[in-house]
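Entry 14. Structure prediction run on the chain below.
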Amino acid sequence: MGAGKKNEKPTVAVKLQSQPTSVSAVTDEQTADITEEKEILGPYTCTGQFHNDFYQLCRRLQLPRIPVVEARHQTLPPEAESKGRDATAASYDKSVSDTTEEQADTPKTFITRGYFEYFKPRVQVVTNVLDKQETVTEIYIRGWKVSIDMMEVLKQCCLVLNNLNTINLWNTGLSADVVELLAQLLPQCPSVRSIVLDGNPNKDQFWHKLIATDSPVHNLSLRFNGITDAGACKIGENLAECQLVSLDLTGNQVGDLGVKNIAKSLRVNRTLGVLCLASNQVRDVGVKHLAEVLAEFPLDHGEVVQRRRLLSHNRTTPLLNTSSHGLRPESRDGHHSVKSSTSVMAKKGDKLSKKKVINR
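Output returned:
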């Protein structure tokens, strides 16, 4: 027994001495790999292949975790959409009937994921053509924080996406710097039409920068962002000369003062067709201000000058087609009143041939 114990001690001593040596060797090897990778990775130029561009830019910023880029799930296969609803349903039913019994039990209307897999950060994209990264039209990020570095990566990727029309960042903890960076991106992406930033409370309330004069955004959703009267007043200041068609402020804290400033901008705005203020703090006073701009109202001299300047600008840089997007048609300006309904007259020779009234 005694001899056995003496023989075991040197063995333990050898293990204790060899452990730090192996750890040190691994650490040196990892450090060398990291240094070599930094030297290999140089400046990267985006090519329009969203998946590759996103991954390469994240590597160069040395982000601790690179989110997975995946196609946004669709119930029906996208390649069948161009054949019409009937052809799509028929081909989809046929593909389901040809599968095995095991595959037939798999749900087709939703995807199941493991608990930890579900909460992993991921970027979902929609493309015009399946498996073609350069045809990305929509980007969705949901439920994880988008930092300033991640927004910089998205900015560089979006600049080369000619078909991009929608950016949806739901519950992503957007800071003031990230919102400002997004606002700088929009004028450089003229194809972007819809921005959805729901569930991003921000005390700085820089949302008005998203609807600057040079912003191409037509549909903006800012639901449940904690927007107060101060934020609504800033939005109202930019609302007069922006290109917005719809604005959704549902579930915020906008009161009568904020609605008053928004209504003031609507006196000269001729593009906004939808304004949603559900679940806010608007009372009778605020409703009265909105009702005034929906009926006939007089324009003062300053408003007439501003309206004419906007119409002159719109003639040189046309906005959307009013017939397809429900915009308010341009009307003649005067010092007397602006009607809530627009009369469109067409003359044939000297006689009046048609009169059409479009009620709002």
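Strands lie at 68-71, 122-127, 136-142, 166-170, 194-196, 219-221, 246-248, 274-276, 342-348, 351-358.
Filed with the rest of this week's runs.
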